[in-house]
Amino acid sequence: MSNQQALLVIDLQNGVCYGQDELFGLEPLLKKVNQRIDDYRNQHLPIIFIQHEDEELVKGSESWQLVPQLKNLPEDYYVGKTHANSFYQTNLQELLQELAIKNLEIVGAQTQYCVDSTIKFAHGLGYTLFLQRNGTSTLDNPFMTAATTIAFYEDLWDQRFATFL
User: Fold this and answer.
1) CA–CA distance, 144 with 111 (Å, rounded to integer)
2) Tag placement on the chain: N or C end, fewer CB within 10 Å?
């Protein structure tokens, strides 16, 4: 990993992970994310937690809080957002510039919404992106199971927008 790299953890919040249904494969996802957090922390690389805010995820509420299993610390970076794209009307771009970040590893939820929007926008801004297989999750939807959705997006992102580690 380069010292110009950061880990972006998107929307692993109580209301996202444990809303009406639990996110698909949540336990292995959180284990994988925490391992990546440990790796970044051991190399003194920045970890940025993105937290969605809306009518259901009210800032400061229990549903808005990061899931308690995450190994986040007060000295990590936190960015609130109100749109699927983590860059839209947030300070994320400024923070990444301040930290001289060129490479981003992205994990989190939900695959086809906030993760996909952020990946494509970050790619358009010129960031080099890295992903883990099954490093994102979602829920079943009327068109595809969560597992099929994740596989579909990973195939779409692979070598077009990101490199899988």
Assistant:
1) 12
2) C
